[in-house]
Amino acid sequence: MKPTLVLVGRPNVGKSTLFNRLTRTRDALVADMPGLTRDRHYGLGRVGSRSYLVVDTGGFEPLAKDGIVAEMARQAESAIAEGDALLFLVDGRVGLTPHDKQIADTLRRSGRPVYLAVNKGEGANRDTFSAEFHELGFGTPYVISSAHGEGVRQLIDLVMERFPEDPEDQDADEKGPRVAIVGRPNVGKSTLINALLGEDRVIAFDMPGTTRDAIEVPFERNGRAYTLIDTAGLRRRGKVFEAIEKFSVIKTLQAVEEANVAVLVLDASQDISDQDAHIAGFVLEAGRALVLAINKWDCVDDYRRERVKAEIARKLYFLDFARHHYISALESTGIGPLLKSVDLAYAAAMVKLATPKLTRALQTAITKQQPPRQGVFRPKMRYAHQGGQNPPVVVIHGNALDHIPDAYRRYLERSFVETFKLQGTPLRIEFRSARNPYADKDYP
């Protein structure tokens, strides 16, 4: 198994910057302000031929008793408990603080091996820069610069020495479907993640904007691997003021682009809003498979339930391909069927369609309804083949296909979806017309 390295420290010491460097990604949000990271964030790193898991945590406040800070501390404590080695980051420019001493006491009681990294030491005299941190009692402090990479490779080499080399240490992609949980703020996205996992893996707090980053959580159910992505709630553009929130919106949109399936979470206790439709439209534009989860179903009466169903049919009519599930993330009801629909949507999005079957389905659709004439000519569609997955793309070849109307394109899309039973994913069609060999010839 890959060793798990956990990054711990007070806010704004450079943990997320180091996480990005170790994973060679930009997955963790980084900004010059404390408290940006809240949940624990997993990534895969590699040094030489050895790979490892690295966990980014929020600013650790061991003495916090309540509020969002206490939730962040609980997340950090969970990461410490599952870590094989702890990388304790301190800020060499600020120097040793009482907060650092509190964290050191907590880490010492954990029983895990601790490596003290004095960050932001680019260009500094290493002995002078780290001298006061000997007081923490973790042996020789290692001076690094997570922003510039100085000393990072040497530190990780040292950490990895304590772990035996795994002959099966490979990066085989066994993560399964990537599932992005999206929706407006405070509709229960993080609670749904925790319900699926059966543990409080991400912070679920009764305050809009609790989740800031796109947090990836690998898990397994019934022998199948998944990667869940908890995203920040998307508000209307005019209500996004803070720089952090603007970063969060970008990370959410990127998470949808990189996912295989999106689960759009709606709040049954509130009206279906234009913003819900905008989020659904973005998922559809990205071509991602979709499942609708109407949350807090246990909190509304029969009249409200009927109203919600009517609003979905009226405002989200363009999502008729997606399965609907009425759930309670807090009570963990309706979760099993939801995951089955995710499996079906993923299978539809990644389906492989043979050219002969596609061409036969195309000819059947044309027999039922021919494309409308364009002037004196009627477009002639000869054959079809698959041009991509996630979403499925059907490429149709023929003559005079440049002006086929959108209504007929939608008719073909529905025909293919019904023929191949592709529920849960949009399908796209591309037309490619053969070049007329006589178009450029001059005749007397």
UniProtKB/TrEMBL annotation:
Pfam families: KH_dom-like, MMR_HSR1
Record bears the keyword GTP-binding: yes
Annotated keywords: GTP-binding, Hydrolase, Nucleotide-binding, Repeat, Ribosome biogenesis
Annotated GTP 2 binding sites: 183-190, 230-234, 295-298
Annotated GO MF terms: hydrolase activity
Gene3D superfamilies on file: 3.30.300.20, P-loop containing nucleotide triphosphate hydrolases
InterPro entries, sorted: AAA+_ATPase, G_ENGA, GTP-bd, GTPase_Der, KH_dom-like, KH_dom-like_a/b, P-loop_NTPase, Small_GTP-bd
Domain of life of the organism encoding this protein: Bacteria
EngA-type G domain residues: 3-167, 177-350
Chain residues that bind GTP 1: 9-16, 56-60, 119-122
Cross-referenced PROSITE patterns: G_ENGA (PS51712)
NCBIfam families: GTPase_EngA (TIGR03594), small_GTP (TIGR00231)
Similarity remark: Belongs to the TRAFAC class TrmE-Era-EngA-EngB-Septin-like GTPase superfamily. EngA (Der) GTPase family.
Assembly and binders: Associates with the 50S ribosomal subunit.
Function recorded in the entry: GTPase that plays an essential role in the late steps of ribosome biogenesis.
Protein name: GTPase Der
